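User: For this week's homework, look closely at the record that follows, marking any run of repeated tokens, and judge whether sequence predicts the tokens.
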Amino acid sequence: MLLARQVNANAVLIPNAVFPPLLLRLADQLEFLVVHIQRHVAQAEAVLASKGVGSRLSAA
């Protein structure tokens, strides 16, 4: 079984979903995913704040 710590995330290439010939590194894909989710969380918090609902989440 291959463990995550045994994988070089800079060596693994993943085809882009929109333009498959464009290969992106796994490390870049993971970074994009984290930033994308952070943006969604910020958008959700902005909606809650505009409705006067306090956030129960603390910044990590």
